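Figure S4 source data
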Amino acid sequence: MKRQVRNITLLMVWLVMMSGAALADPGTEPPPSVKLSGFASVWQQYNRCSAAAFTMLISYYGWGGTYTDIINVLNPHVEDVNVRLEEMVAFAESQGLSGIIRTGGTLDLLKQLTAAGFPALVETAYYEGAHVPKNWMSHNRVIIGYDDAAQTFYAFDSLLGFGADGTGRPLPYAEFDEEWRHFNRNYLVLYRPSDEAALQAILGDQWDAAANALWTLEQAQADWDGVYAGDAVAFFNLGAAQFALGRYDEAASNFDQAVQGGLPWRYLWYRFEPFETYLQLGRYNDVLKLTQQVLATTPGVEEMYYYAGRAYEALGKLPEAKVHYKRAVQRNTNYAEAAEALANLGG
């Protein structure tokens, strides 16, 4: 299956976004270079790149709040180390915007989105210091431009900066793609509800979640068949795509290989598909083992308490489940799934 990023409806009239950037004409190749403007520049606090990147992204749509406002919603606990993209979408929706999260992105698709005035927030790997496996972590960036001649994207990066002229930090295509694949090349796009048809036209088949999962699986398989064969992240990405398609047995097998193959130690701070998969298959003790491993070094990952609670509940250990759901909610009062699970147990 070929990605349909260029299958743009010829009759669609694209709107000019608030930033004033001209949008590409439907049905045409994106121009060789584009830079969007109208973003707040936010330097992050420690372990708060997600909130910073999201503040910059939503500022493009005229949102007038502050970085502190976003932290209070997305990182209400001082030890919180991660924000799920779904949390960002939920906040955007509370402000009258819409959002879509997809995986299996390509460089061409990011250029199409940017040319049309839709900046994307992406999760990438970031390496701190010389010891890469030890210091690997997630880092969120906002793609605000590109230049084909220079083979470079431009990003607003809350840790590394906004470029010498403040209009975007250069990020070479090849370097970016290597860092992006660690998160199955995911992307979050916010949009005004009135612009949904224009965005849907750009995404084509990728607008549909099932089609996107199939594409992501093909992309992950291509990575595996290529230079990343045997790589723990490649195993993980295959498993994540299979999980999205409901192929739990295959997904679990690949997650097992990924865990055994030496994932970066922070990896499960950010990616939770193995927990969901093992729960589907009744592998509750494996869920507890993994959650305990994460919490032993990082007690601030509220999702670990939630998944441990689900495993305990499935095992019939309701007091333990209730305690873990309560801890999840205490660490993030906006954690709707944990709050609902706790309420169902009378908490």
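Figure S5 source data
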Amino acid sequence: MYREPRTSPIIPAYGELSLADLSASLLASLSDGSEAVGGNGPANPLGFPSARRACLLLVDGMGWEQLRAHQAAAPFLSELAFNSRPLTCGFPSTTVTSLASLGTGLPPGEHGMVGMQVADPATGRLVNGLRWPSEVDPVAWQAKPTIFERATAEGITVSHIAKGALAGTGLSRATLRGAVSRPAGSLGARAAEAAAALHESERALVSVYTADLDTVGHLYGVSSPAWTYQLAHVDKLAEQIASALPMGAVLYVTADHGMVDVGPEDRIDVDAIPELRAGVALLGGEPRTRHVYAEPGAAADVLAAWREFLGDRAWVASRDEAIKDGWFGPVDEAMRPRIGDVVAAATGTWAMIASQTEPQEPPLIGMHASLTPTEQLVPLLAFLSR
């Protein structure tokens, strides 16, 4: 299996070229005024042109480097990418965090959804953003206003198109508040719903989400024929939406993260290594990036143990170091306790699994969440209907 080379970490370019800046710019381009989203930097940091109608296609798991490596499978998207530049998705490079950044126009340290599994300081338990616990109110957990709420308040018709099973979930309530759900189970149905939503209003923001490419990557790997074939279906979806745009409308295409393939030899089983479990109260995050919550008084020892054992297989930082180095962007003081006492981001193709507490059946091949270019860089593609 191809082994991803070790590189320096890609620190997300918050305020300049991140997913949060994409949604802030998108709202600014549709707005009559020029107020910044949530007061987070300039109103339109990416310089999007003014438009009355826009569609944002979010392809879960379509990293910039993977797209550039599969141009023959995705001719429409690859042509758009020719004169485009990538964005950094934010840290961790995972769906929960990226959807919140896109949904609020804020970096992770401000919206507080800083990983797939993070500690709730009030209860001392983990909150899983993909399998939302019933006792945690998503609106209270992520209380910042969304760009969809702000767009609706400005008289813009806002729609979100995805599989119906995603409507009303905790993650959707935390990140998509303000958008009207238009369920569509297939790629063809999503293209049709997007076209209808764009044509029904003179001012419209339409969000389309597809997770199939991410699912294929997890199960088969991003180096597999299955992933390449699925990318071709995504390419056709984007082309169909673009062909159906009203005159003057714009389509933006992006992703929430890239992905790396992790082989059996690159899996570090935290549950089987006493040094990595000593002094640990909770293990959060996911295999490519871990939030490690220490028992009282044990944070320094846990940090030293994880650094010593992992060596160059992960970038390991204390909470204060990760914040200082800008991994999460500016951090709201209320959100600091959600970040692990120790944060470990895998390098190369390593992964920190937990075979007993987080059994994977079947074992995942494609993974993401870290600071490598393959995971951090996502496309920013645009198509204007003339």
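Residues 1-5, 34-42 have pLDDT under 50 and may be disordered. The first helix runs from residue 19 to 30.
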